[in-house]
Structures are given as structure tokens and as C-alpha cells.
Amino acid sequence: MDFTQHWYKHPLKYLDSHPSPRHLILNYEDLVQRPEQVIRSFYEQFGYPDKPGLEKIVDEAVKETLSFNSDHVYSYREMGFTREQIIELYSDIFERFGFDKRERELSGVDAQIVKVSAID
Q: CA nearest 118: which of 60, 63, 47, 50?
């Protein structure tokens, strides 16, 4: 767990101590819900010219991503952790990014198992 904490916390400490308009933290939910808008904002922030046909490129990429189905299944319980431990260990990350700490009811799905279906 120390290793994963390092990979979450070290980059954030670096970015906080070296503020720059050349740094960007993307919100995954924004990227998933509004990919073209997020990409255009990225282009604008970093001074890239508008990409002709971006809407079509994004649409095709989204379709491809949605059709992908991974065989990887992850369970924090099988790795020896509880949800409470994870929230406690990463409380600063949950706070910083406004992650929901409440247990969610997932109909027909075991809440501690995550099947990766979009990105492998």
C-alpha cells in the first residue's frame, strides 16, 4: 500500500510545490462525460491549434472504448483491504478531489469488486 500511496501523493506534492500553467490534472468523470470539451480545453491551455475533425475522432474513440471489455477483475477484499482502510489511507486524496466516501448500492454487483471495462 505504501507504493500506491507514493504514486498518488508524490505527483500532487510536486505539482503543488511547482505551480505552472503547463500542469494539468484532469478529472476522469469530466473526461468520460465531456471528452471533446475536455480535449479542446487541454488544447487551449497548452497552446495547441484546433484539430480539424476532432469531434469525429473523439466519437470514434468513445465508441471503441465503450465496446472494449476487459477480463480483469479487481477486489480490494481479495487483496486484504477494507473499504474503510482505503478511505482512511487516502483521505487527503478523497478530500482534495471530492470523491464520495459513502458506500454505494450497486444493484446486482458486489460493491468491493471492480471489473475494468473501459481502459486496460
A: 63
Question: Hey, what's the cell of 81?
Answer: 483491504
Q: Is the pTM of this model over 0.85?
A: no
Cell numbers given for 78? 481479495
In 3-state terms, what secondary structure has residue 113?
strand
Q: How far is CA 89 from the centre of its chain?
A: 18
Distances (CA, A) of 120 to 6, 11, 108, 109: 22, 22, 23, 20
In a 3-state reduction of DSSP, which class is residue 8?
helix
Instruction: Provide the Cα torsion 1, 106, 35, 4; round to 10°.
Output: 0
Per-residue pLDDT of the chain (120 residues), as tens digits, is 678 888 889 999 999 999 999 999 998 889 989 999 999 999 999 999 988 999 999 999 999 988 888 888 888 888 888 999 999 999 999 999 998 888 775 444 454 444 444 444
